[in-house]
């Protein structure tokens, strides 16, 4: 009998916040590579908020999944068999393989990793979330020495990396996160100057106290009412990086509007960010970020679960905003 390939498939389209029962874990047949292809044994799966929209066909470049389809996702794997001239057994490769143990690739959308930092970091601070943070800080928000930089979802991989990059540029960095545990992590491990728990009733007063000179750059990962509340504390000509809309991912009704009047009155510079625009700079970015990580200047924190069959549990946690750090599923050992 052929060897098995554990997969997580869609059982039914989620309504609102996904449930574990929206997914099904099955054993498919392990694929074999043909000419010009290689076989990957996946080690780590990255769980990311965009997957919620991708499953529903609301995220750019992703068609709506049907029951029985493998869930979208990026994995870091090891080549275990190759009939491709550019990939050798033992190479570490990032692919859009979906939530499964084994994957055959012809190199399309694959990226070989020169693993000079912890492997799983290439799915977080050194991966797509890190590149997003870098683009938002270096290319769009551009905080200057002494300016106040605020970032929401500050304990996640995008927010935590953005704050650390802004701090390295000399900004005063204030995070916004959901809960005291996350806020402690943001200050103690990621080195932010302050962090405000938006679940506290007086959080906007706390933000004001932490940003005495107003806010010059806001890196927004959440949208919704928080965007309006933070904008109220920005100074004229502030830059707002529109990166994510975590508060809206699971909505079943209409999108919540914004107070456009205050953007006009404050002459706010709004920058929409799409990480795919910066793919060509990934190599240069990871080189710098991996060095920062090795030098102890970039901290990472992961929320891990062991076993692909438990990926739905961690995804539900992420979609409820209960994850603390980068959501990573360990599919197999780094070395066999
Ligand atoms: N534009 C792009 O190209 C791009 C690329 C990558 C990521 N993103 C976006 O960047 C944001 C951060 O990504 P990440 O990977 O670092 O994720 P993450 O921070 O690990 O997870 C999302 C976080 O959103 C927060 N959140 C706020 N309101 C929420 C709500 N109503 N329901 C659920 N969660 C809520 C939660 O943290 P708190 O409760 O602590 O706030 C949750 O932990 C996401 O919105 C993502 O879609 C955009």
Task: Name its key features.
six-stranded parallel sheet; seven-stranded mixed sheet; binds NADP nicotinamide-adenine-dinucleotide phosphate; 336 residues; 2 domains; globular; 26% strand; 25% helix; Quinone Oxidoreductase, Chain A, domain 1; 9 helices; single chain; Rossmann fold; alpha/beta
Describe the model.
By secondary structure, this protein is an alpha/beta fold. It has two domains: 4-124 and 300-330, Quinone Oxidoreductase, Chain A, domain 1 (Alpha-Beta Complex); 128-276, Rossmann fold, CATH 3.40.50. The chain contains nine helices and 15 strands. The chain has helices at 50-55, 128-141, 157-168, 180-188, 203-210, 225-231, 260-265, 282-294, 311-319, and strands at 4-10, 23-29, 38-46, 74-82, 92-95, 102-105, 111-113, 148-152, 172-177, 194-197, 215-220, 234-242, 269-272, 302-306, 326-330. The strands form three sheets. Strands 3, 4, 5, 6, 7, 14 and 15 form a seven-stranded mixed β-sheet that branches. The protein binds NADP nicotinamide-adenine-dinucleotide phosphate. NADP nicotinamide-adenine-dinucleotide phosphate binds at residues 48-50, 129, 132, 152-153, 155-159, 177-178, 182, 221-222, 243-247, 273-275, 318, 320-321, 323.
Based on the structure given, which CATH architecture of the largest domain is correct? Alpha-Beta Complex
Number of helices: 9
Helix proportion range: 25-40%
Could you give a short account of the major beta sheet?
7 strands, mixed
Q: What's the number of structural domains?
A: 2
Gyration radius over CA = 20 Å
N-C termini distance:
22 Å
Look at the structure and give the mean pLDDT. 96
Query: Helix and strand string, N-terminal first?
Result: EEEHEEEEHEHEHEHEHEHEHEHE
- Which regions are unreliable across 5 or more consecutive residues at pLDDT < 50? none
The total of beta strands comes to 15
- Structural class of the helices, strands and pairings? alpha/beta
Q: CATH homologous superfamily name of the largest domain?
A: Medium-chain alcohol dehydrogenases, catalytic domain
Question: Strand content of the residues, in percent?
Answer: 25-35%
Bound molecules: NADP nicotinamide-adenine-dinucleotide phosphate
CATH topology of the largest domain: Quinone Oxidoreductase, Chain A, domain 1
Overall form: globular
CATH first level of the largest domain: Alpha Beta
């Amino acid at each position: 009998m052929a060897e098995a390939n554990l997969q997580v498939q869609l059982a039914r389209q989620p309504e609102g916040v996904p449930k574990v029962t929206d997914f099904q874990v099955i054993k498919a047949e392990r694929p074999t590579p043909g000419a010009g292809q290689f076989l990957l044994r996946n080690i780590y799966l990255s769980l990311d908020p965009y997957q919620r929209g991708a499953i529903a066909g609301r995220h750019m470049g992703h068609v709506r999944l049907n029951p029985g389809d493998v869930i979208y996702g990026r994995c870091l794997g090891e080549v275990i068999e190759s009939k491709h001239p550019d990939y050798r057994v033992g190479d570490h490769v990032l692919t859009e393989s979906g939530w499964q143990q084994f994957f055959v690739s012809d190199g399309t959308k694959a990226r070989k990793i020169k693993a000079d930092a912890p492997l799983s970091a290439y799915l977080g601070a050194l991966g797509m979330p890190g590149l997003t943070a870098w683009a938002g800080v270096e290319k769009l928000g551009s905080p200057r020495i002494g300016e106040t930089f605020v970032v929401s979802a500050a304990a996640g991989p995008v927010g935590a990396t953005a704050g650390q990059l802004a701090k390295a540029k000399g900004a005063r960095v204030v995070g916004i996160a959901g809960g005291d545990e996350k806020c402690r992590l943001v200050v103690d491990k990621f080195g932010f100057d302050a962090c405000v728990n938006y679940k506290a009733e007086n959080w906007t007063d706390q933000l004001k106290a932490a940003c005495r000179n107003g806010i010059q750059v806001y890196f927004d990962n959440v949208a919704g009412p928080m965007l309006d509340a933070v904008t109220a504390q920005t100074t004229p000509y502030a830059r707002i990086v529109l990166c994510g809309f975590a508060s809206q991912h699971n909505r079943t009704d209409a999108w919540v509007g914004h107070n456009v009047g205050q953007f006009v009155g404050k002459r706010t510079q709004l920058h929409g960010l799409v990480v795919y625009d910066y793919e060509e700079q990934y190599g240069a970015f990871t080189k710098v970020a991996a060095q920062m990580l090795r030098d102890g200047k970039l901290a990472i924190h992961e929320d891990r679960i062991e076993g692909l069959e438990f990926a739905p549990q961690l995804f539900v946690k992420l979609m409820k905003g209960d994850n603390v750090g980068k959501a990573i599923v360990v599919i197999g050992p780094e070395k066999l």
